[in-house]
């Protein structure tokens, strides 16, 4: 129980997430509930999150992907409302589930990946380093906007990790995206490569920077394909 909003009104809202109700009353009702949940959580405050926790978990496992997608797009906002402790305990498991969901759901967490990761403690954030490369693989390879969004997010995410982590994990993703079949993805990836180099040199990780430059020279400057050599020219231009 809480005293922020009338209890009958809250009870009515919570009852709308009943799967049986969605089948008999309105198939879109769960989606509308998911859309408004961050607003309800903000009104109640983090001290009353226990009133919404079960409802949120029910919506996060809804059979309709549109419901899960709606939550995926707003989970970073909910994390701000709940704070780091509740986020780590209650939102991170759901976030992990969304990462393995359909592309239509994954794009929701991908679009705000930086916003969510920056709210986590450093040790929890490091756990996602290996998982980031899973975003390169999509259900439909023609979904190039997914890979474009990944490159954009990685440019932001660079600030959350130290140079060694960037070199060991994010560098491989950047090089893969630089060889994408779609030119738009390659273009944003060239910016990502330059951002990685800047990360190394602004943090005095000169050895890592030099290794990465040598790798770019071997991979693109001396490529047997003209598109590879063109990529090297574009990387120099962006830099």
TrEMBL record:
<dbReference type="GO" id="GO:0005737">
    <property type="term" value="C:cytoplasm"/>
</dbReference>
<dbReference type="InterPro" id="IPR051023">
    <property type="entry name" value="PP2A_Regulatory_Subunit_A"/>
</dbReference>
<protein>
    <submittedName>
        <fullName>PP4R1 phosphatase</fullName>
    </submittedName>
</protein>
<dbReference type="GO" id="GO:0019888">
    <property type="term" value="F:protein phosphatase regulator activity"/>
</dbReference>
<dbReference type="InterPro" id="IPR016024">
    <property type="entry name" value="ARM-type_fold"/>
</dbReference>
<keyword id="KW-0677">Repeat</keyword>
<dbReference type="InterPro" id="IPR011989">
    <property type="entry name" value="ARM-like"/>
</dbReference>
